[in-house]
């Protein structure tokens, strides 16, 4: 089987009115269905419920999806089903598995407007972001389908007379996928697609905040032809995730989320209880504390909008979002003034209004966390700009820029995951690099600079997983910007990259002696 | 109307070509440097990146380091550039190299950017007027990312309207420039950019930018009306096309602007859907009679590379014609439609392509209209020769004159350099010695 070369699913051309109308029509189709039922799917068992309710962050009284609250026991049942089904799915030809993923992509493509609308409602993703989320989910399906086909051909080894060497990649077994809410379609879809493409069966636990979007991922895969036993869905809370991680029948854990949870998963996964005959592998994408370095020769006409976009779009709720600006002291005052002025132009509002930059954050706890950091920034440093008009209803946070913070301040080292940006003047690029180097996280980074030699120097020295030069630092594209961090930002894997699938397989080498009685047979 | 005969176009083109001035040696030197760049993609990239960063360099040393950094990436360096690279190795060398390079860029900038302020441009504007050439002044500026910057630009525009009025008031009468069959034509003429009048131009939310820019543009329209000046609203990339078009047509529909000022919009012929926009504009003009009919500047479009790159990056069909001949053909078709839409609109044909200009002259003649009932526009620094020839032959010609400092003008300068070194450009083909018949043949 060969598939046409991978191309990214085009995001909608929202500068054209008909594209915007199509999204609003998708919302009009979705609205009467709300709240949707997001079931638990364990093999062929489907159960509905309303113990887990996701709500609209912009209108917290409104339910968007109703799901049952799975228990640790449900998780075990789902692993049981997945473990039983694993040999058959692994034995399914790679081409058939790839075809199922491609059909799942087509299913999503047909419903992209409605899916985006669901992400708008359930996670308050502004339209453009929600559309990109769905497009990225489609990309993951298409990209990993192709990657798995290539992997199925095995690796090339040296061959000498009388010896035949082959290297193949076998599925590892059951994969537990524990997904975040901030890319409620793309990330669960990506981790699940990678596991399925390579012949693993999956138990997917969507984030408790976005069971509706998670259900769409499972539905797409099943509609595409993935057997129900190979993809189970267990909406629930942390105990479900913990049960999956601890289960000795789970081989791989794919997690995207916060650093504390990720480190806990790594610790738990290292336990090998009696009867477990494998070492678990953890693929973890954790948070960042992402810095944008602005050298003295930067074009602020480009840098200011890019920084503001990187820090505040989607209320800063991306792992890749900008948190700190490290700007050359020669232009620091100008930059601060322009960033502060640009902050006032940000559109803070409901996600379903075109043009909204800063929607509400996901939940009350997030709003409180951001507020705590903003207070800390005010106490330890100075607030340069704070957005004035923020709607009262919904989990809104005022976009804020702070400066003058002491180096050890939590505001400069902890991931805030909200619309709070700090600016520091630095002596030069090396000073900035030292500060980046001082962080525990190393996910994304930005550099605004027009000297090619400086660009090379920064690229060589920065530890971050994704460095963006002279552009915004969010919006990694599958196949173009394989995404993932280093240090405590993750296990160093690259989602949407050429070697991501290797995390989901075990290599097996067969060497056959082909010499018999001195003859090569 | 009577179809335009190619023989007429050829004859008009020949006459204009004969009126082109012989080239000055200084200009020829510039052209040579740009010619070199147009044939070597790496060198071209290095040149653009260097020109782009000049205003941000804080010392001659810094400037030289940047230059060396860019040249480092040029694989096959012509001899003088190797010398430059060696100079960059010492401090003294860098000072000399930096000074030379800065002077070079300044020289190049002055070809396209007339002065730092409208007041400083007075001498040039007066000279052009004496030569029978009008101007439309464009205030270069940094990108508008804050409301304060939008207010600042609007204030500079208002001031420029005053200054232009003062500059032009005492100049002697130039009948050719001051009226067409429809009526009087303003002397002072300012072009403004909506992207500088608001920080809120969002491709996916045209309403936002439109409503934010409207009060500032309304004030400028009022000022232009009081002064009797012409205000032209430029078109930019496709991302803002809907917002700009809606903004201009909506504001000019307001009762208070029915009697003025003279105002205009731009139609970009490289846009695939420009015929539909042309229809919209001409029907709007027919339905909204104004004391000064809407001016429509027809251009090919200056954001072609940007549009193509953006479309490729997003997997979209580009909004522009990918083949240059398609734009050229469309330009001629739109020329005819605008000429036919008179007296509701005043067509302004803005091109440096001798064929496109000759075609417009022939098409105008075919309608039986007076030669002065169509205006020609060129860009300062790129269309100087054509401007001279058109004025010499008695056509109404206006030169688009950017005003501003080097920092602010860089984006503009780089775009103009791109245009000048594009291999398909008319000016380049002409410089390469293509025959007049070839250059004047139908696209």
Topology of helices and strands:
The complex is a heterodimer of chains A (521) and B (443).
Chain A: H1 17-30, E1 36-37, E2 40-42, E3 45-47, E4 52-56, E5 59-67, H2 72-91, H3 94-110, H4 112-123, H5 127-152, E6 163-171, E7 174-178, H6 186-197, E8 201-205, H7 211-224, E9 231-233, H8 238-246, E10 250-256, H9 259-270, E11 281-285, E12 290-294, H10 300-312, E13 322-328, H11 332-344, H12 364-380, E14 382-386, E15 400-403, H13 410-413, E16 420-426, H14 429-437, E17 441-442, E18 444-448, H15 452-461, E19 466-469, E20 486-487, E21 505-513, E22 515-516, E23 519-520
Parallel strand pairs in A: 1-5, 7-8, 7-10, 8-9, 10-11, 12-13, 12-18, 13-16, 15-16, 18-19
Antiparallel strand pairs in A: 2-3, 4-5, 6-21, 14-15, 17-20, 22-23
Chain B: H1 6-19, H2 25-38, H3 41-53, H4 60-71, H5 79-87, H6 91-112, H7 122-130, E1 133-139, H8 147-168, H9 175-178, E2 189-192, H10 194-197, H11 206-227, E3 230-233, H12 241-253, E4 262-268, H13 274-287, E5 294-299, H14 304-314, H15 324-340, E6 345-350, H16 354-366, E7 375-379, H17 384-392, E8 396-403, H18 406-421, H19 426-431, H20 436-439
Helix pairs in contact in B: 1-16, 1-17, 2-3, 3-4, 3-18, 4-6, 8-11, 11-12, 13-15, 15-16
């Amino acid at each position: 089987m060969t598939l046409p070369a991978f191309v990214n699913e085009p995001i909608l051309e929202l500068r054209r009115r008909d594209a915007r109308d199509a999204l609003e029509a998708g919302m009009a189709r979705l609205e009467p269905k709300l709240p949707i039922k997001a079931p638990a799917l364990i093999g062929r068992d489907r159960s509905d419920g309303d113990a887990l309710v996701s709500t609209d962050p912009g209108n917290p009284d409104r339910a968007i999806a109703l799901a049952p609250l799975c228990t640790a026991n449900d998780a075990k049942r789902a692993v049981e089903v997945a473990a039983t089904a694993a040999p058959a799915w692994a034995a399914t030809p790679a081409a058939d598995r790839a075809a199922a993923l491609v059909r799942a992509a087509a299913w999503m493509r047909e419903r992209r407007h409605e899916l985006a609308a669901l992400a708008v409602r359930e996670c308050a993703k502004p339209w453009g972001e929600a559309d990109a989320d769905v497009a990225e989910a489609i990309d993951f399906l298409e990209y990993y389908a192709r990657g798995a086909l290539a992997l199925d051909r095995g690796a090339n080894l040296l061959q000498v007379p009388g010896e035949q060497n082959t290297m193949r990649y076998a599925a590892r077994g059951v994969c537990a996928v524990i997904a975040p809410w901030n890319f409620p379609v793309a990330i669960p879809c990506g981790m699940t697609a990678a596991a399925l493409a390579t012949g693993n069966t999956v138990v997917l636990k969507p984030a408790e905040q976005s069971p509706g979007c998670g259900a769409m991922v499972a539905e797409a895969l099943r509609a595409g032809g993935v057997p129900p036993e190979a993809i189970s869905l267990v909406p629930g809370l942390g105990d479900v995730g913990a049960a999956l991680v601890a289960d000795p029948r789970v081989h791989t854990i794919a997690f995207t989320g916060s650093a504390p949870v990720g480190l806990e998963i790594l610790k738990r996964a290292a336990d090998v209880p009696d009867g477990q005959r494998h070492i678990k592998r953890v693929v973890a994408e954790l948070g960042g504390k992402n810095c944008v370095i602005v050298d003295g020769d930067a074009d602020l006409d480009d840098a200011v909008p890019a920084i503001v976009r990187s820090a505040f779009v989607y209320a800063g709720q991306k792992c890749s979002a900008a948190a700190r600006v490290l700007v050359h002291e020669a232009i620091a005052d100008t930059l601060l003034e322009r960033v502060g002025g640009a902050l006032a132009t940000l559109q803070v509002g409901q996600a379903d209004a075109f043009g909204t930059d800063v929607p509400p954050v996901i939940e009350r706890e997030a709003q409180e966390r951001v507020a705590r950091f903003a207070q800390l920034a005010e106490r330890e440093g100075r607030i340069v700009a704070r957005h004035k008009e923020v709607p009262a209803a919904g989990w809104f946070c005022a976009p804020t820029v702070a400066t003058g913070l002491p180096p050890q301040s939590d505001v400069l080292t902890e991931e805030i995951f909200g619309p709070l940006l700090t600016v520091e003047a630095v002596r030069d690029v090396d000073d900035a690099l030292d500060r980046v180097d001082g962080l525990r996280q190393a996910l994304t980074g930005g550099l605004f600079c027009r000297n090619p030699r400086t660009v090379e120097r920064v690229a060589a020295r920065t530890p971050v997983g994704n460095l963006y030069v002279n552009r915004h630092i969010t919006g990694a594209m599958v196949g173009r910007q394989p995404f993932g961090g280093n240090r405590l930002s993750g296990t160093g894997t690259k989602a949407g990259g050429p070697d991501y699938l290797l995390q989901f397989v075990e290599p097996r080498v067969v060497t056959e002696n082909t010499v018999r009685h001195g003859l090569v047979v | 109307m009577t179809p335009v005969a190619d023989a007429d176009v050829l004859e008009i083109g020949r006459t204009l070509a004969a009126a082109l001035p012989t080239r000055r040696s200084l200009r020829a030197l510039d052209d040579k440097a740009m010619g070199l760049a147009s044939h070597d993609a790496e060198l071209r990239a290095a040149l653009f990146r260097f020109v782009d960063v000049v205003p941000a360099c804080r010392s001659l040393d810094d400037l030289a380091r940047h230059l060396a950094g860019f040249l480092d990436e040029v694989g096959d360096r012509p001899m003088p550039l190797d010398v430059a690279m060696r100079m960059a190795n010492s401090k003294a060398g860098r000072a000399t190299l930096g000074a030379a390079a800065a002077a070079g860029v300044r020289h190049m900038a002055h070809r396209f950017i007339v002065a730092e302020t409208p007041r400083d441009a007075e001498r040039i504007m007066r000279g052009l007027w004496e030569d029978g050439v009008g101007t439309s002044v464009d205030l270069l500026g940094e990108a508008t990312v804050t409301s304060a910057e939008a207010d600042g630009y609007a204030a500079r525009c208002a001031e420029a309207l005053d200054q232009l009025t003062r500059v032009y008031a005492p100049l002697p009468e130039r009948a050719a420039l001051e009226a067409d069959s429809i009526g009087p034509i303003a002397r002072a003429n300012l072009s403004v950019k909506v992207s500088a009048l608001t920080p809120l131009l969002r491709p996916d939310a045209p309403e936002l930018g439109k409503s934010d820019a409207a009060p500032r543009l309304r004030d400028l329209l009022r000022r232009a009306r009081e002064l009797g000046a012409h205000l032209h609203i430029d078109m930019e990339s496709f991302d803002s096309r809907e917002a700009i078009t809606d903004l201009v047509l909506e504001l000019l529909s307001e009762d208070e602007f029915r009697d003025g000022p003279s105002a205009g919009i731009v139609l970009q012929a490289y846009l695939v859907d420009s015929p539909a926009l042309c229809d919209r504009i001409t029907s709007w003009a027919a339905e909204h009679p104004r004391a000064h009919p809407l001016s429509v500047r027809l251009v090919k479009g200056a954001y072609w590379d940007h549009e193509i790159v953006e479309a490729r990056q997003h997997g979209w069909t580009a909004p522009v014609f990918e083949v240059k001949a398609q734009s050229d053909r469309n330009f001629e078709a739109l020329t005819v439609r605008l000429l036919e839409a008179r007296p509701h609109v005043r067509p302004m044909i803005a091109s440096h392509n001798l064929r496109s200009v000759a075609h417009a002259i022939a098409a105008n003649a075919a309608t039986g209209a007076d030669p002065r009932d169509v205006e020609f526009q060129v860009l300062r620094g790129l269309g100087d020769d054509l401007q001279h020839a058109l004025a010499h032959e008695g056509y109404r010609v206006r030169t688009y004159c950017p005003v501003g400092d080097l920092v602010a003008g860089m984006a503009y300068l780089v775009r103009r350099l791109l245009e000048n070194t594009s291999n398909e450009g008319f000016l380049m083909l002409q410089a390469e010695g293509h025959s007049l018949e070839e250059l004047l043949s139908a696209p």
